[in-house]
Amino acid sequence: MTSKKRILTGDRPTGKLHLGHYVGSVANRVRLQNEYDSYIIIADVQALTTNFEKPENLSRDTFQIAEDYLAAGLDPEISTIFVQSMIPEIHELAAYFSMFTSVNVLRHNPTVKSEAQQHGFSDMTYGFLGYPVSQAADISIFKAHLVPVGEDQIPHLELTRKIVRRFNDLYKPVLVEPEVLVGDVPRLVGLDGKAKMSKSLDNAIYLSDTSLEIKKKVMDAVTDPARIHKNDPGHPEICTVFAYHKVFNPSEVPQIETDCRQGNIGCVDCKKKLIGCLDAMLEPMRERRANYLLNPGLVKDILLEGTRRAHGVARETMLEVREAMGINYFG
Ligand code: TRP
């Protein structure tokens, strides 16, 4: 047993990871993986809350996200990457949690509400309404101390803490109340200047984008519409490219800001600088990805081994949970 504190976090496998995921959460996971005993869940069952009609993409998306994690720098020797559906104990714990979780509380969860709206649900399925309960089980079955996530996950972490407190009060204090950690950039703007980078808005730069794709996307990005000529004074505060410089090129920001306001740097040159920074950040990820892809079967082995390790932890917690609840009738 390690004495390190534990991290549990993860994502639904619904497509490629983009820069918003990276700065919102994945970079934190990479940074903290040596300090914490880290578990990364690929939440394929949670993905079914919206994708149950077309589960055929789940396998592809599960491997895709695993590759993205590994490319981003999660080290499978240190971090345990695993698949949710392979750990049935999570769903058992969720069932126990559901007994004392109020439907009204679930109905008022702002993230669930906005996702329901985004998917155009007029009614919610039981599984969708209840996924934050299942997420509380994902986290607490690992007795995680810290959960690095994007800001949209904060309501789910509040619920998790509440459920853990209730469980510990009702039965025995066997579960751990987790803290939430939101990345430096809780929300990254999209290439089109919309509030959020997202796959569904088609305004994202992916960790797996090639150099050429990055170049094209950044060159097409929206800047200050008032700048028609290179020497027109700019307004960095409304410019998407400047917003990205703040995140990916902080050391040059004061200079770029002055040059833009004075019309000393044109948008094309400013974009070229950004392309250079993004490529420098993504290049090591491309190299790692290429190495994993050279070795077919490696990603699958990593997921199998991670899932085996995670399953061991989940089984142990459930022995304690059943004992605490007095439902271990046969010893
Ligand atoms: N809800 C998260 C998302 O939408 C995914 C997730 C599932 C998760 N279980 C988790 C995140 C446990 C952190 C901890 O991406």
Strand content: 5-15%
Described by the principal axes of the CA atoms, the overall outline is elongated
Mean pLDDT, all residues: 95
Helix content: 40-55%
Number of strands: 5
Poorly predicted runs: none
Oligomer: single chain
User: What is the alpha-carbon Rg in Å?
Assistant: 22 Å
Could you explain how this protein is built, in words?
The protein has 331 residues and is mainly alpha-helical. The protein has 14 helices and 5 strands. The strands form 2 sheets. The chain has a 3-stranded parallel β-sheet. The protein has a two-stranded parallel sheet with strand order 4-5. Helix 3 crosses helix 13 (267-294) and helix 4 packs across helix 8 (131-140). The protein binds tryptophan. Residues 8-12, 41, 43, 46, 135, 138-139, 147, 149, 153 line the site of tryptophan (TRP).
List keywords for this structure.
binds tryptophan, 53% helix, mainly alpha, two-stranded parallel sheet, 331 residues
Short description:
It is elongated and about 80 Å long. The chain has helices spanning about 20-30, 45-50, 60-70, 90-100, 105, 110-120, 125-130, 130-140, 155-170, 210-220, 240-250, 255-260, 265-295, 300-325; strands at about 5-10, 35-40, 80-85, 145-150, 180. Helix 3 crosses helix 13, helix 4 (about 90-100) crosses helix 8 and helix 8 crosses helix 9 (about 155-170).
